[in-house]
Amino acid sequence: MFEILTTDQMYEADRRTIDGGIAGDVLMENAGRAVYEEIVRHWSPRSVSVLCGPGNNGGDGFVIARLLREAGWSVRLGLMGDVAAPKGDAADHAARWEGASERLSPALVVGADLVVDCIFGAGLARDITDDIAVLVTTINSSTASVVSVDVPSGVDGNTGMIRGCAIKADLTVTFCRAKPGHYLLPGRLMCGELAIRDIGISDQIISEIRPNCWRNDPVLWRAGIHWPGLDGHKYHRGHLLAFGGAAMTGATRLVARAARRSGVGLLTVVSDPSVLPIYGADSPGVMTAPIGQIETLLNDCRHNAFVIGPGYGVGDDTRSLVLKLLHQCRSTVLDADALTSFADDPSTLCFAVQGPTVLTPHEGEFGRLFPDIEGDKLTRARAAAKRSGATVLIKGADTVIAAPDGRAAISAIEAPWLATAGSGDVLAGIICGLMAQGMEMFDAACMGVWLHGRCGADIGPGLIAEDIPDHLPVILRELWLASRKKA
Ligand SMILES: NC(=O)C1=CN([C@@H]2O[C@H](COP(=O)(O)OP(=O)(O)OC[C@H]3O[C@@H](n4cnc5c(N)ncnc54)[C@H](OP(=O)(O)O)[C@@H]3O)[C@@H](O)[C@H]2O)[C@@H](O)CC1
Ligand SMILES: Nc1ncnc2c1ncn2[C@@H]1O[C@H](COP(=O)(O)OP(=O)(O)O)[C@@H](O)[C@H]1O
Ligand SMILES: [K+]
Q1: Cα Rg of the chain (Å, integer)
Q2: Which of 395, 410, 414 maximizes ligand 2 atoms within 8 Å of its Cβ, making it the mutation to test the pocket?
Q3: For each of the chain's 487 residues, which pLDDT tens digit applies?
Q4: What is residue 87's three-state secondary structure?
Q5: Coil, strand or helix: which one is 422?
Q6: Which fold has domain 218-486?
Q7: Which 3 state secondary structure label does DSSP give 226?
Q8: Of 71, 105, 168, 366, which has the maximum CB count within 10 A?
Q9: Which is it for strands 266-271 and 303-308: parallel, antiparallel or unpaired?
Q10: H or E segment at 11?
């Protein structure tokens, strides 16, 4: 259930299911019944208006209206266009509706306690305009509860973008699998609670259409975790070099603590000698080395992972050091200043990426490195990953992680408490720590985002970045115990 399907993949899954012998009108009946079941689970009988658009989303509406009416609810049904308009499966279900139909208008919202939005689903093809926009505004400013079918009308299922305007739902019921627009902003804000309901499309069919986007969940990457073996020693868990800036030392101190809490065997902060005592005094388990020893450090292959950027400073020195590090082809995480230092020359950075590399920009940093890449976050992360050869993670409430081969994951954990200075530094440290332990770059980025999100959600109000590393053992233990149960 963690796959995320584009609307085209969803149409393909429908088509293959229909070819396999389940008729389209049965799928529509199943879809309508799933929404009906969610409605009666959430609300007691009340006056409801079901608003039907001209396509199959409207077809689902006829099923929902019929089932609610049969259950004794007071139902009004509004239809866009004339009564003879529905085609195909929607027409079949329209014919089974024995109640009255009204023309779709704001009058249907007056006196309704519940509005069922079946105006547009996967087939939204252009911006909402004029009379439908007035209806959307009326619904959004009414006190009625709102259930959206498949997607809130006006939200683009593939991108999460709002096409003109969109309905704000309390509950969205989608079918088979979620679509990107359920998790990407701003679509996610319009969905309310999300229910993903089976309508009879088999897992076999979903695997045949080879989805390459998932909701970020341990199912994706838990097999790639390197738990320490009974006979292991610290060098089996990696030796990470964290490059510390001379002015903002707090950033790399956060990086270091997070990396160590993620399980890395050894960690050395490498910095200007003038600030080494600050890094050394921060935590007794941290080792330090002056930047002047860089060649010696790099000659030691046991130093298998590098993280650079947080608090490091923007400029030529940073750029040269990043290129030197990338030349080693070892696991590397580039964040913050390590990215911004290439704002004038991003192609040099992309060209230099050869080994396992994760770029962790927030939207501002992404825009500096890839100003020509446009579109929704999923599309942009994928394009940047393909161009650079790195795993690219665009941070935010809807963090997207994309691999150069097109695989992508979207974070769905709600943890707005993470929006605080230093929290991104912690994320960079976690990801690099996981890579140092041998985890593949895309898996490490996904797992890092998940651990970070779970810490944020658990700690909640009052969170400061310093809290996150020290909460990691709680979440890691959960994963570890689950892995032992499986074995
Ligand atoms: N077997 C299945 O496939 C199943 C499908 N299911 C359901 O079907 C839904 C997809 O159905 P769908 O493809 O008919 O698309 P839908 O969203 O109803 O809209 C299409 C219509 O809207 C129109 N239109 C578009 N944008 C517009 C605008 N801005 N302003 C005005 N008009 C606009 C467009 O017009 P056109 O662009 O063609 O001129 C067309 O007439 C899916 O979300 C799910 O709920 C379930 O029953 C499970 C089984
Ligand atoms: N609304 C939000 N919900 C969840 N996570 C968020 C939200 N806003 C920001 N974050 C997360 O907080 C972190 C902030 O990182 P960043 O912008 O690099 O800050 P800093 O550089 O101060 O560490 C990122 O991991 C980002 O995904
Ligand atoms: K809808």
Answers
A1: 26
A2: 395
A3: 899 999 999 999 999 999 999 999 999 999 999 999 999 999 999 999 999 999 999 999 999 999 999 999 999 999 998 766 788 999 999 999 999 999 999 999 999 999 999 999 988 999 998 889 999 999 999 999 999 999 999 999 999 999 999 999 999 999 999 999 999 999 999 999 999 999 999 999 999 999 999 999 999 999 999 999 888 888 889 999 999 999 999 999 999 999 999 999 999 999 999 999 999 999 999 999 999 999 999 999 999 999 999 999 999 999 999 999 999 999 999 999 999 999 999 999 999 999 999 999 999 999 999 999 999 999 999 999 999 999 999 999 999 999 999 999 999 999 999 999 999 999 999 999 999 999 999 999 999 999 999 999 999 999 999 999 999 999 999 999 999 886 5
A4: coil
A5: coil
A6: UDP-N-acetylmuramoyl-L-alanine:D-glutamate ligase (3.40.1190)
A7: coil
A8: 366
A9: unpaired
A10: helix 7-19
What superfamily would CATH give domain 7-211?
A: YjeF N-terminal domain (3.40.50.10260)
What are the sequence ranges of the domains in the chain? 7-211, 218-486
Which residue's CA is the nearest one to ligand 1's atom 9? 57
Best residue among 255, 257, 362, 454 to mutate for probing ligand 2's pocket (most ligand atoms within 8 Å of CB) is 362
- Which residues contact residue 20 at a Cβ distance below 8 angstroms, ignoring those fewer than 6 apart? 202, 205
Residue 395 in contact with ligand 2 by CB distance below 6 A: yes
